[in-house]
Amino acid sequence: MENTVNNAEKYFGQFCVLLAAYTRKTARLRDMADLLVKQLLDFANTENPEMRTTLKNFAEELAKIQDYRQAKVERFELKVINPLRLYETQIKQTRAEIKKFNKARNNEIKQLEKLERLRQKSPSDRHTISQAETNVQKAAVDMNRTTHQLEETIDIFQKQKLKDIQKIFSDFVTIEMVFHAKAVEVYSKAFEILENYDLERDLEDFRVKVHGVRGNVDARPINATNPSSSLPWSFATPSAQSTMQNQRQEEEEMSGEASAEEDQIEDLRETKTSRIRK
């Protein structure tokens, strides 16, 4: 009976510590996931429309899972941790019964030893021996009654312990199954959201923005000293083209006349030189 109580105290205490740590880690995971959701929303606000919508919907699904995880933490506390903590009180009460039993047993042993000493020292003192025998009988009766009570207490304790172990871990598994079933459902939807993301639309939007910026840079006017040089030839008006062609013809005619005059001067120089030599 003492071993039963000692083992319950040892292992139930360890279960309580481990499951409490398990619950705290689950709560920390919830907190980290909440931070991830916040970061996703912040990042979404910097992206193109399709990615923004996709990330916001994805973050909402992750937030739902954290709500389920919060419910799991609360259920762990209620259905797993608290029942294990209550065993501290039950173990104390059972130990009190064992202590009472030990006291009755020690009293019975003490009365028996006293009776034995009297029989050895004073075998003729019937009155004292009779009184000692009466005390032994009372101690035995008290011992039997205490033993019976302790047996009932331990039997109830053991039965309750086994039922609680079954229920506590059944609740633990049920809570986990409910959470994971909900999580799979939400994760499936989150996966579908990511799969339906239209990458090409965002790239098209991005390229339009980039080309728009580059087009604005190329379209800036170029300052020049000659106003007419700022326009390409192909964009000149017909009248402008005609005027420029006439100017070019006049320049060519003047250039031809100048060349003919230079040829005449050169011929005169050669004739004068030949006369001098003669």
TrEMBL record:
The lineage of its organism: Eukaryota, Metazoa, Chordata, Craniata, Vertebrata. InterPro entries: AH/BAR_dom_sf, BAR_CBAR1/2, CBAR/FAM92. Its main location: other. The keyword Protein biosynthesis does not apply. Belongs to the CIBAR family. It holds the Pfam family FAM92. Residues 218-278 are annotated as: Disordered. Residues 266-278 have a biased composition (Basic and acidic residues). This is CBY1 interacting BAR domain containing 2. Keywords: Cell projection, Cilium biogenesis/degradation, Coiled coil, Cytoplasm, Cytoskeleton. GO terms for cellular component: centriole; ciliary basal body; ciliary transition zone. GO terms for biological process: cilium assembly. Signal peptide: none annotated. Residues 223-247 have a biased composition (Polar residues). Residues 84-121 form a coiled coil. Residues 250-265 have a biased composition (Acidic residues). It comes from the Eukaryota. It is found in: Cell projection, Cilium; Cytoplasm, Cytoskeleton, Microtubule organizing center, Centrosome, Centriole.
